[in-house]
Amino acid sequence: MVEIVNKVALSSLKTFNLEEYYPDGERKFIDIKDWLFEGIILKEKDFRETLKNHDWSQYQDAYVALHCSSDAIVPGWAYLLITSYLQGFSKKVAFGDLEFLNSLLYQEALQDVDFTEYQDKPVIIKGCSNKPVPENAYLLALQKLQPLAKSIMYGEACSAVPLYKRPKK
Q1: What Rg do the C-alpha atoms of the chain give, in angstroms?
Q2: pLDDT (tens digit, 9 = 90+) per residue, 42-69?
Q3: b vs e for 40-64, b when ≥16 Cβ sit within 10 Å of the residue's Cβ?
Q4: What is the DSSP code (8-state) at residue 71?
Q5: How far apart are CA 88 and CA 90, in angstroms?
Q6: Chain-centre distance of CA 6, in angstroms?
Q7: Widest CA span of the chain, in angstroms?
Q8: In the predicted model, is pLDDT for residue 34 greater than 50?
Q9: Is 93 helix (H, G, I), strand (E, B) or coil?
Q10: Which helix (H) or strand (E) holds 144?
């Protein structure tokens, strides 16, 4: 009987899995058009009253993205006022959609990663994920890894796409 050898497991190939750095916590999206008159006009008195009566506890320990999906012209203070109500409930508030929020969270998470274990190693940035890893997180990971890694690929060990190979000196 021929022994099957897992060459990937024996190689010096290091896998960088962004899913491991996914910040746990619920994501919530607030579309403020729902708080505007006819979805497009901010009437300050009504807006403030709506915010005052809103149940902010539903955002407890959540990451919140604020956005307006209509073509309304929303003054900057409106987002600040919403954020002031979210203070004490949410973990973080960002202006944009959920993908932007996740990009921001990954940017913060990757700042604290010690990438030295990838020094002079072939690295594969794992492509498949069960969590919503935004494209921007892959770009950030590549930028952190490239100055260190011997080579970088994307995907899975069985079907990786080469991205970078350090030039020989």
Answers
A1: 22
A2: 999 999 999 999 999 999 999 999 999 9
A3: eebeeeebeeebeeeeeeebeebbb
A4: S
A5: 6
A6: 33
A7: 81
A8: yes
A9: strand
A10: helix 135-145
Both structure tokens of 13: 């190939």
What residue has token string 């993908």? Answer: 99
Q: How confident is the model at residue 8 (pLDDT cuts 50, 70, 90)?
A: very low
In what side-by-side order are the strands of the sheet with 63-67? Answer: 27-31, 63-67, 92-95
Segments making up each domain of the chain, as ranges: 7-23+114-165, 27-90
Q: What 8-state DSSP symbol labels residue 34?
A: G
Length of the chain: 169
Helix (H) and strand (E) counts in the chain: 5, 7
- Which helix (H) or strand (E) segment holds residue 108: the answer is helix 98-111
Q: Would you place residue 6 in the very low, low, confident or very high pLDDT band (cuts 50, 70, 90)?
A: very low
d(CA 161, CA 43): 53
What is residue 133's predicted lDDT score, i.e. its pLDDT? Answer: 92
